[in-house]
Write a structure and sequence with these properties.
Order of helices and strands: EEEHHEEEEEHHEEHHHEH
Number of strands: 11
Largest sheet: 6 strands, antiparallel
Number of helices: 8
Strand content: 15-25%
Distance between the termini: 17 Å
Oligomer: single chain
Bound molecules: manganese (II) ion
Length: about 300
């Protein structure tokens, strides 16, 4: 039986305009997470930090169910803390995670996603977006009312249709991947892909082997592109280890760094745009009701994305 091993790297930065970094991330062997928080005062950074910490704590069984339940638990914890502390009312966060899950034959990879952070896979020089953004503009693109090009610069592209913290239940997209012997994954917040084009991101992933170095190059590129939002990039090189031995990841220290430097995001402090408020969660500054957010529940969309299976 072969086992999968992660070698991870990560970088995050507040960007050029924001005062606080509300992104949080985790980069360990077996679990990688990016969360992009939003909410007034310190709400955004708290929400994304809770998401990462809670998911890490509850993902104990290396199964897709455990991972998905962890997202639901994180949602509940964010809701509970927001209810407990008025200054955190209306806080929310995206969450995108990649994990190794057990399988009788060979371990597989699972990705879960809520919101507009993204997971990409890079194989053989081609980068493909795995996740689908839960944002208003992406919904409009799917309906044919916006072109992808129009979506890239749309003033309301920060409006989310799904996030943690919005409602008591959360719909989670799931992807199960049977990976090639070697595959590279990128988890990132929108502060990266809104500033750096697809081809440029792919070029960096293909040219820079060290995942920490590559992550920093991407963050630097986003800052050069404007840095209008917090920027987080987590890179995971997933490798099959044929003899079943587990190899210790080279980047375990990133866990500690994550604990010290939690989250952020830019949606919150961008007071000129009707972003989060319109997602129905209580705006970043209005302290309004966080209970009015519709989660657009409906079809229980469990999506399975197979790679080279
Ligand atoms: Mn963001």
């Amino acid at each position: 039986m072969s086992s999968l091993v992660f070698t991870v790297g990560a970088a995050t930065d507040v960007g050029q305009l924001r005062e606080v970094n509300q992104d949080s991330f985790l980069a360990t062997d077996g679990l990688a997470v990016v969360a992009d928080g939003m909410g007034g005062h310190r709400g955004g950074e708290v929400a994304s930090a809770i998401a990462v910490t809670s998911l890490r704590a509850s993902f104990s069984e290396s199964t897709l169910d455990s991972l998905t339940d962890g997202v639901a638990r994180a949602n509940g914890e964010i809701r509970a803390q927001a209810a407990h502390d008025p200054s955190l009312h209306g806080m929310g966060t995206t969450l995108c995670a990649l994990a190794i899950i057990d399988h009788p034959d060979a371990e597989k990879l699972a990705i879960v996603n809520v919101g507009d952070s993204r997971a990409y896979v890079f194989v053989d020089g081609e980068m493909t977006q795995v996740t689908e953004d839960h944002s208003l503009v992406e919904a409009l693109v799917r309906e044919g009312r916006l072109t992808p090009e129009e979506a890239e610069t749309h003033p309301q592209r920060n409006i989310l249709t799904r996030a943690l913290g919005v409602a008591d239940s959360v719909e989670v997209d799931q992807f199960v991947i049977d990976p090639m012997p070697e595959a590279r994954f990128l988890l990132c917040s929108d502060g990266l892909f809104n500033e750096v084009g697809h081809d440029e991101i792919a070029r960096v992933l293909g040219e820079t082997s060290d995942p920490n170095v590559a992550a920093q190059i991407l963050v630097d590129a986003a800052n050069r592109g404007g840095g209008r939002d917090n920027i987080t990039a987590v890179i995971v090189d997933a490798r099959r280890n044929g003899n079943g031995e587990r190899v210790v990841s080279t980047a375990q220290s990133r866990e500690a760094a994550t604990d010290e430097v939690p989250v952020v995001d830019a949606h919150a402090t961008n007071s000129g745009e009707p972003n989060w408020a319109e997602a129905g969660t209580g705006g970043p500054t209005d302290g309004g009701s966080g209970d009015s957010g519709s989660n657009e529940s409906g079809s229980d969309r469990r999506r399975w994305w197979r790679f080279n299976s």
